[in-house]
Each structure stands twice: as C-alpha cells, then as structure tokens.
Amino acid sequence: MARGKLSVRYIKEILRLRYEAKLSQREISRSVRVSVGSVNQYLARAVAAGIRWPVPDDMDHNALVKALFPDQLVTHKVRFVIPDWPTAQVELRRKGVTKQTLWEEYCQSHPHNAYSYSQYCHHYQVWLSQQRRSMRQVHKAGEKLFIDYAGPTVPVINPDTGEIRQAAIFVAVLGASNYSFAEATWGQSLSDWLESHVRAFEFLGGTPTMLVPDNLKSAVNKACRYEPELNRSYNTLAEHYSVAVIPARPRKPKDKSKAEGSVLLVERWILAKIRHETFFTLASLNARIRELLDLLNNKPFQKLPGSRRSQFESLDKPVLRPLPTHRYQYVDIKKVRVGVDYHIEYQKHFYSVPHQLSGYLEVHASSSSVQVYHLDTLITTHPRKYHAGFTTNPVHMPENHRAHATWTPERLLKWGGTIGPNTKIMVQLFIDAKSHPEQAYRACLGLLNLNKLYGDERLENACRLGVVEGLRSVKNIRNILKHKLDQIPTTKEVNAPLNQHHENVRGSTQYQ
Q: Could you tell me the pTM of the whole model?
C-alpha cells in the first residue's frame, strides 16, 4: 500500500503488529506493504498522541486521523489533496522535470493525504484531457520555436503615389511559454523569411534548440513526411545560429498547432484591432504591432498561472542559447552554369571563374560579395555588382584570351576605320546590339580578323552589303565572303545603260 492511502484498518494493523505481535518495523513493512519510514512515522505519532493497542472502539477514522495529524484538516468528502495541475503542467516543461519528481514533491508537502503515483498520473491525464487540445503536447523549455505566416495581410499606403502594398505578417512562438513574436514584411520571399528569423532571435535574446516551420517554399524546397529538403540558404542560417530545423510534416496540423494557435491570437488581438487604422510606412506598422504584441504577451492566461512573458522569463529565457557574436548576413544561394566564356551569371551580371571549370557551380551572394563554390570548396570571390555587365579576373582567362583584356570600344572602332567606313559602322552596330560593350568584343574581333583571309577591300564590301541588308553577325559577313556575294554587282550596276556605239551592235540601217 502506497503512502497517502492508509485507512483506519491499516493504521490499526500497524499498531496491532507492533504491540501485540511484537514485530519489528521492517517486518511490519513487509506485512502491510508500507514503507519502513511510514511505519516508523505512524508509530511515532501514535506514541506522541498517547494511542496504544488496542485502539478504543469509539475512535472512528476521523478521530484517529485527527489524533495522529492534528495539524491537518480532515473532511468526509475529501480524503486526498488535489494537486495544482496547472502548475504541474508548467513545471513539466522544464528540462529534467518528470511526473515522478513532481509526485515526490507533492508527497513531501502532503505526506498523509497524497495520491499514490499511479493515481497521481491518472488524475493528471484526466485533467489534461479536459483542457484545450493545444495543451496536450508538452514542450520543453527553450526547445522549439514554431514559425508561420498569418493568412491576412495589412495594407500600407505610399503617401507620395497612393500605391497600396500588402504587408505579410511573420509569427513565431516558443512552445513552452507561448511567448510570441510578430512583425510585418513586404512579402514572404527568402530574404524576408530569413531576416525575420534574425529579428525574432534578437527579440527573444537567444536561440532555441529547434525551429519548426511550415512547409512554405522559403523554408523547404521539397516537402516530404520523412526527409524534407531544406532550402540551402535556410540551412546556412541554421548553421550560423546552431539550431536544428524540423519542418512540420505535410497534412499533420498537430505538428504546428502552436504556430497556428499563435497566428490565430495575432489575428484576433493585433490584426483585428488595427483593421481600421491607416499605415503609410512599414516602420509605423511594425511599431504598432510591437505595442499590441507587448499587451498580448503580458495578458494573463485563463487556465494557467501567469502570462506569456512571466512564463518566458521563468521557463524559456534561462535555457535559450546565447546569440553568436556576429549577426547573420543574408546570403542568396543558387546553382549556376559555367558559360563557354568561363563566366557565370547572377542577376544579369557575369562573373569569371577559372576557365578549366565546366558544368554547375554554386553562388553565395551577399550584399557585398559574390562567392563561387565547387563541391563545397570556395573557388573565387568577386565584389557584388548591381548592374548588367562583366567582372573578369585575368587569372581566370586562358593565355590566348588575356591579350583581349586590353581591348576597348574606341580601339576596335579605330581598327575598323582603318579597313573602311562600312567596317567601322558594322563594329559600332555590334557594340550597340549588346547591353554592355564587353559582350561585343569577341564578335568585333572575329569580324575584323576576317581581313586576314579575304583582305581589307573584300571585308569592306561585305560590311557595306551587311549594313544595307541589316545583317548583324560575324556568321553573316563570313557567308557573304565565303560565297563571294560581295563580288556580285549591285542592282544599280546591272541596270546601267549599254554602250550604243560598240562595233558588235547593229543599228536600224542594217535592216533597210
């Protein structure tokens, strides 16, 4: 028989075995299946109360218990002290705290009218089943941060143009304390997603052990119940903050119930309250969200002690991991293909790589630099450019291409002018056809080098014909020269008047 459930019959049996049967306390313990300590305690209290064996017949249960435990209230209706289940629920979120630990503390506080361990667990489950469904999952302190976007958006009006943009609402909530974070961003792009994580960590003052995002594209490239494929940039952020990312399983709403519950609260307590307010900047919207967010986190729980903030201060905050020394800098990671000109393209700008490389590489682009990786090995780094064009490191070029690095549009036009005016015009047309002059250098050199095979005069004639016909490629000019089209007389030359005084031309007098 476990401690806290002894009836009058068992108490009297202990007294009988001690004073009548003359058994030791250990033998009594084995006989009535009560711990030796409880046997010793009951016997000591009986001596202190002057109770001997046999117990008087008129001493019923209440009288006996009152005599043994005068400091505790005994009623007919309640035999056991009901544990403080909400506090127990909160304590179970602490790392290392188990129901066994809580039961032992409960028994120490109420040694004579406490439930047995099995009954303690049973009544806890009964109480838990009567709470909200979101309470059924027990989250350890500092363990999980649930992340999602709210469904509704908030309009932000540009005061200069009147343009209306819809701001997305990012929401994050700690599993143990329900401490929530929310902010507005211009969208749900990868950069918005990652930078919101950074601000959420700074709001909390530390990082949890795990992140539990929904399966949106910014977080997961390929949703899968067993092996979801994380976005490469998201994985880089997780490595920077030493956190694990465990996406919610598809079509498993319980995996993200905390996030959905927090999103619902944000919609009710923040978005609903600002639905009639007008915002002209994203900063003013976020300032208003922060005011209402503080009210939400300080709002007392209905069925649990304290508030989100007080629970955060006592549960999550002490066990959150410290933030790293350096703030995370957003890095866009993409796969790119090496072109035939040993350049890779990122946002319409071309960056050189060693000419020996081919196939696919990986670009890590930050706000200040572009790093190129091959099989997780850094190949080269370039300053970030925000305009169309080329950035070429001469070291990456083959030997026979390095001489071309000194070419300029002026030099090419001057060379074309030495061949002829039409050749110069064709060079200018090549340059004008490209968004950046460097993109036309190779075509210009290919055009001008045709004079080595066909001479300056024929190249000038071919360019003249190309200008007239609207041709704009080296291949077209080469075909003109190859098929000797530059040597065919023009239409004007074919229609020129014949010499009427030639000796082979007969006149009208020959037919008289």
A: 0.51
